[in-house]
Amino acid sequence: MSVSKNVSSVSKLKDRLPPKEKFSEWYHELIQRAEIMDVRYPVKGLYVWFPFGCRIRREVYKILREIMDREHEEVYFPALIPETELGKESKHIKGFENEVYWVTHGGRAELDIRLALRPTSETAMYPMFKLWIRSHADLPLRVYQIVNTFRYETKHTRPLIRLREITSFKEAHTVHATFEEAEEQVRKAVNYYKEFYRRLAIPYIICKRPEWDKFPGAKYTIAFDTIMPDGKTLQIGTAHNLGDSFAKTFDITYEMPNGDHSFVYQTCYGISERCIAALISVHGDDFGLVLPFEVSPVQIAVIPVLYKGKEREVLDAARELGELLKTRYRVVVDESDERPGAKYYRWELKGAAIRVEIGPKEVEDGSAVVSFRDEKKKFTVSRDEVLNKIECWANEMRRRLYEKALNEMKNRIKFCKKLEDVKHWINQGVALVHLCNSEKCGMLIDEVGSLLGEVVDIPLDIESSGKCIICGKEGKLNAVARTY
Amino acid sequence: MSVSKNVSSVSKLKDRLPPKEKFSEWYHELIQRAEIMDVRYPVKGLYVWFPFGCRIRREVYKILREIMDREHEEVYFPALIPETELGKESKHIKGFENEVYWVTHGGRAELDIRLALRPTSETAMYPMFKLWIRSHADLPLRVYQIVNTFRYETKHTRPLIRLREITSFKEAHTVHATFEEAEEQVRKAVNYYKEFYRRLAIPYIICKRPEWDKFPGAKYTIAFDTIMPDGKTLQIGTAHNLGDSFAKTFDITYEMPNGDHSFVYQTCYGISERCIAALISVHGDDFGLVLPFEVSPVQIAVIPVLYKGKEREVLDAARELGELLKTRYRVVVDESDERPGAKYYRWELKGAAIRVEIGPKEVEDGSAVVSFRDEKKKFTVSRDEVLNKIECWANEMRRRLYEKALNEMKNRIKFCKKLEDVKHWINQGVALVHLCNSEKCGMLIDEVGSLLGEVVDIPLDIESSGKCIICGKEGKLNAVARTY
What we know:
homodimer; about 475 residues; alpha+beta; BirA Bifunctional Protein, domain 2; Rossmann fold; Translation Initiation Factor IF3; 12-stranded mixed beta sheet; 5-stranded mixed beta sheet; 15 helices; 24 strands; globular
């Protein structure tokens, strides 16, 4: 595997990254320097995936695809949606009308009907679902696609987080005979997403979004958020129970075994490349990317430490080990003629999970010096053992990354009993409060910070009900935060 | 693997397909019935990939990706290109201005600069290449992406062949220090595409397009065409030597070892989902899809032939064999309670490469009845041998498919000495003629049929030079055809 040669021209390898404490600067610099995305494309909010970023994307979406393939079939629906279809579901179009890109001309001709660039695909898919579904035997239908979607963002844009072209939106859509089955599917979706984020070692909190923040047209929305290093939350996945509202709009019915016809019940759930923003932000450090072994484009960097007169032996040993490791893993043997320090620096920046050094001493005694990206310590092992230890090391590393991230997240979550505390705490993280079900109290807290909604799953042990922080009536545990 | 349940509702399985002789009807019906694409999306020229079609797409593009990954790195550039960039290369924009979709509005606001939906990505990529390339050490640069591209087609549209959204355009772009290196890269691209089409068992002819039909902005264009069952040719791949014309437009230079600066030389080459149109059309027959083993979503269909009182034994044996085969291949054990005939019919339609039947007799003697999708004959083998024979059968099948397709193609190619012959023959296939290099003679023959250009590679032994069919001067072998 060749290292993209434009590393040197794009980034100044000798300068240090800004410290991670200055999260916004750190993120922006790291995205460019580690060659995830090039931010210099001449349109605001549009970015270029560098080859290295593309490799991370490929590995991350391979996991997502593997999970989806278990019970969904992949489809592809057009990127262009006629205005007539997009406008059919009134709540839905209201939710998107300010951020839809419109295609109005083909060549020099004005189009008869304007075409929306899909912001999401309900209105592209559901007119077809009406044709696909006839009887109960056609249900459930479960499909997904991974596509580019578009939003005319007027707020501050940021690579992977707030974009005008979301390049890799995984959207799943399911159709069921009953509301209960749709509910069950939302639960399954939540479990799929839990597994996905566990594999990325990213901790999350799960909330049911308040009424005014649910997906336009949905009955309810379950959302995954993670906490970024600056304490703001990033929504990294959502699952929506659509009930039968889209079914009614698009007239999707099925024949029941008794011959009657009924509207179907639907769900949809999605994850965008924000999962990669979370991956980078949650695990990264002052030296660059830290990636779980499973998704690191360079899982193992083998560094020959060359000494005059011993070059050949060292290089041979490094290559031999490299070839062996390549039979199972993504490996680079860094034969460049830079100092070892420069090589360490590069592979730290790029998040190589495991570094293996071989110098003259190691050649002689058949050993190798191993270190992990997330730990400073080095240790020596027999070269014969390296291959068979990798999987174990990879698992241990994921466990460490998850534990570390989970602890950081826990430290950013605080249960607050007073509104004053909430106001202060949300500058640092997520405030948990008890909140009654009234819209009035919800709206009041939403003025203090964004109400993420009723907590469904959180890695802390806090009473799930208690007195509403606003009115004192019986309430449920809710989360409040500043959000991306 | 589940068979998409909407088979029955979408298609009427009991009706026969139109015969392949009526190619246009056959193609249209097959695309829908075999569930490749749904043609009922409410915008002309936009189609939906069914789950089954998506699986073919996945397998075909896996091959293409594998070939590209050998010396290219994957990237992703935005789908939206500002008008200012798209318009920079005058020949290029001229070639596309009548078929570009324009985004003019974001939400309710009119955009300051109109955005083109990429028809192809030169003008999205090359302003960035200018930033990526500094010195000779950054060269060569070789990248590719697989993306959706858009053309406002005003002609008759057709699924996979002429679309308004090309959903899977593989475009590679390379940058070199010299014109010769760019030429060498075009040769390599041609070899990559040869390998790709060999693996799909699709024969091709390769021509150098005439000046007036080359890629807008290119020095020259090499194109792959295959011959469809109606005798018209389908362009299924192109490779362009761009020289330094885009480099000059986008000011892409590099520093040479001696410190001087020079413009770079570029190539680009692409394949769209037309490769799947060719796959379907070249190999399919009156019964449906015929697919090479490597890309068939259902490589092996195991059919238990159930008899009263023997159901359990037969089913057990079929499942056992199915499980074994699934360890290496994509397998369906068709346990539906339909008659065997209906099952055969379905898996013929869907192009399952190998069919394995097990009935009571086979249960008893430990055998299985095997047949291949492209041959009528059945034969009996020991069940123990099936797994280990698959690879050999798959290779033989590809060879047969290729031989058959090649013979059909050869029968559709004829060397013509008179213009009158050309006029007649192009109703059936490709006419080969000797043609001088003058634009006048080229234009004259282009009135009779489309001039594909000078023949670079053709599976027939015909003199590569001879007297021009128009003027009688010394000429080269050229191909003329009706084209899609």
